Amino acid sequence: MRNILVTGGAGFIGSHLVRLLVNKYPGYNIVNLDKLTYAGNLENLRDIENSPNYSFVKGDICDYPFVEKLFGRYRIDGVVHLAAESHVDRSIVDPFAFANTNVMGTLSLLQAAKNHWGKGGKEGFGNKLFYHVSTDEVYGSLENDGTFFTEQTRYDPHSPYSAAKASSDHFVRAYHDTYGLPIVISNCSNNYGSYQFPEKLIPLFINNIKQNKPLPVYGKGENVRDWLFVEDHARAIDLIFHKGRVGETYNIGGFNEWKNIDLIKVLIECTDKQLGRAPGTSERLITYVKDRAGHDLRYAIDSSKLHDELGWSPSLQFEEGIEKTVKWYLENEEWLERVTSGEYQKYYQQMYSDRK
Prior knowledge:
Layout: E1 3-7, H1 12-24, E2 29-34, E3 54-58, H2 64-74, E4 78-81, H3 88-93, H4 95-117, E5 129-135, H5 160-179, E6 183-188, E7 190-192, H6 201-210, E8 215-218, E9 224-229, H7 230-243, E10 249-252, E11 257-259, H8 260-274, E12 286-289, H9 304-310, H10 318-331, H11 333-341, H12 347-352
Parallel strand pairs: 1-2, 1-4, 2-3, 4-5, 5-6, 6-10, 7-9, 8-12
Antiparallel strand pairs: 9-11
Helix pairs in contact: 1-7, 2-4, 4-5, 6-8, 8-10
C-alpha cells in the first residue's frame, strides 16, 4: 500500500500520470492536489474520478499549513511534484507568479515531506520518495551542432519560467544533501498529446487550422525542440518513481528534434488530411511574428541514462504520435470548446459542491 500525492494532477501531464497510476496500481491511494488554475481541468479525469483508489483535493501548494495537514491526513509516503506555472510567454509578463508557485510551492512541499517523513527513528526516511518533475529549459540553449543536454549539463536558464524551475531543482537537491530527504529529479523535453491546454503550440495550431485562423510563428520558425509523447512521459515517471536511484537525475526526451516551421508544416498536412482538405491548404495561414524575448535556439535531450539503467524508450514515432494527437483534438470538439470558452472551470463546482 502506498499513498502517493500527485501535485498538478488535473493538468496536461499530471492527468495522464494520475490516470496511469490509478489504473495500474489498484492497491495505491492516489491523491491529486491541484489549485485548478486556468490549466487545471478535472474534465481530463472523468474516466477515473469515481475510482476507489483516487481522491481529488483542491488546494494551493504555496499554502504551507494546508500542505502540512494534507500530508498527515492522507499519510503521504510518496510525492510526484508536477504543479507549476509552465508557459514561457506568461512568465515574461508575470515573473512573480512563476517564482511564487515554482519555487515557494516546491519549498512548501519539501518542508512538509521532511517534517512528516523524518520521524522514522532508526529507519530514517524509510521507503519515502519526493519526485520532482522539471524541464530541459533549465539547461539553457544549444547550437545546431549535434550536442545534447545530459544530466551533467550545467544550468543556464534564460526565461523567468526556466529560472524558477532551475531554482526549484536546486532546492530539491539541497533538501537531499542537507536533510537526507530521498529525492529524484527528471528533466523532460516538450510534451504533446491529448488534454493539453490550447495555449501551447500543437493544440493551438490544430484548433487554428480547423478554424482557418492565423498560425503565428516566432521569428523565422528556426528554433528547434525535442518532442515527447505525453503518455511516454507518464510511463517514464512511473518507471523512475519505482526503480530510479535516489538522489539521481534522469533526462526524458523523445529523440525527436524538429524545427518549429517543419513541425507546423507536418501539423498542417496531418490536420488538413483529417479535415478532408487538399494537401497544404492551410499553409496560407502561417504568419511570422516578432520573436519571443530570450528565445532559446535549440533544446535536445540525451535520454541514454534512462534507457540504459531502466530500459525506457519512446513508444511512438513522431508522425504516428502527431496523427493520434490531431485525431483526438478533432474528435473532442466539446472538450476544446469548453476549454477555450472557460466553461470547463465550472466542472469542479458541479462535481464537488455538495461534497464535504
